[in-house]
Design goal:
By secondary structure, this protein is an alpha+beta fold. The protein has two domains: 78 residues, 2-Layer Sandwich (Alpha-Beta Plaits), CATH 3.30.70; 107 residues, 2-Layer Sandwich (Alpha-Beta Plaits), CATH 3.30.70.330. Helices cover 22% and strands 24% of the residues. It contains five helices and 16 strands. Strands 2-3-1-6 form a four-stranded antiparallel β-sheet. It has a four-stranded antiparallel β-sheet with strand order 8-9-7-12, covered by helices on one side. The chain has a two-stranded antiparallel ribbon with strand order 4-5. The longest helix is centred in the last third of the chain and has 19 residues. The termini are far apart. It holds the Pfam family RRM_1.
């Protein structure tokens, strides 16, 4: 059984036969989960990520079954089950973040420049996870990284607030306009621009993101990118200036 409690390499993993489980009570253990799932289908691997320092699980994990049908059967049969009074959250792993990297998929631009379009979401329902936020807020624009929900380091439970960063201010403005005061899983959330971090101390400053300076810098960066992409490179790799039109002088 011990060989089951591992994180298989991506090349050896059948993501379509895997499930994500979350909202775990701190008392839940790997053997308990194994005994629960094995009653319904053969298990290939069960991965419960743990805090490197405290060695406690972070409230979620992944399980891979032998076949896709096994995963679908378990997803249906265990829907609504509770462990230590908390409802077990089950989803298909292919629609979730993979492992601890928490990739949002096509809605995420991991190489995009952080211009400061960072928003703060407060009063989140404890059942809302990073994937739920990604699904909700990616409708307004491209995220430059996976959403971040602040969690208790010991229990892994959500503290009720998190952050999302977009690749432009029009998206973050729209998200604030549409989602501030909206109801997410029976909780009325507050959505505003996040406070900036002080690079010297790591603490939040009293100035929020989205100010005139950040917007001006973002516009300048966008303009520069357009300029560079419209120019041509010569054989030496240097950017060459566009040739003037002989008739118009432009």
């Amino acid at each position: 059984m011990t060989s089951v409690f591992r994180k298989p390499p991506d090349s050896d993993r059948n993501i379509k036969a895997s499930l994500y489980f979350g909202n775990l009570d701190p008392q839940v253990t790997e053997p308990l989960l194994y005994e629960l799932f094995i009653q319904f289908a053969p298990i290939r691997s069960l991965n419960l990520p743990k805090d490197r320092v405290l060695k406690t699980h972070q409230g979620y994990g992944f399980i891979e079954f032998r076949t896709i049908k096994d995963a679908e059967y378990v997803l249906n049969i265990l829907r609504g089950i509770r462990l230590y009074g908390k409802m077990l959250k089950l989803k298909k792993a292919e629609s979730n973040f993979k492992g601890n990297s928490q990739q949002v998929g096509a809605t995420t631009a991991s190489n995009a420049m952080d211009i400061g379009a960072k928003i703060f979401i407060n009063n989140l329902n404890p059942l809302i996870d990073e994937q739920s936020l990604a699904d909700t807020f990616s409708k307004f624009g491209t995220l430059i990284r996976a959403p971040s929900i602040i969690r208790d380091p010991e229990s892994g439970e959500s503290k009720g607030y998190g952050f999302i960063s977009f690749n432009d201010f029009s998206s973050s403005d729209m998200a604030i306009q549409k989602m501030n005061g909206a109801i997410l899983m029976n909780s009325k959330v507050s959505v505003t621009y996040a406070f900036k971090d002080d690079p010297t101390s790591g603490q939040h400053m009293k100035i929020k993101h989205g100010d005139k300076v950040e917007r001006l810098l973002a516009e300048n960066a966008k303009s520069n990118n357009v300029l560079i992409s419209s120019t041509k490179q010569n054989e030496s790799g240097k950017i060459a200036k566009p040739r003037k039109n002989r008739r118009t002088g432009n």
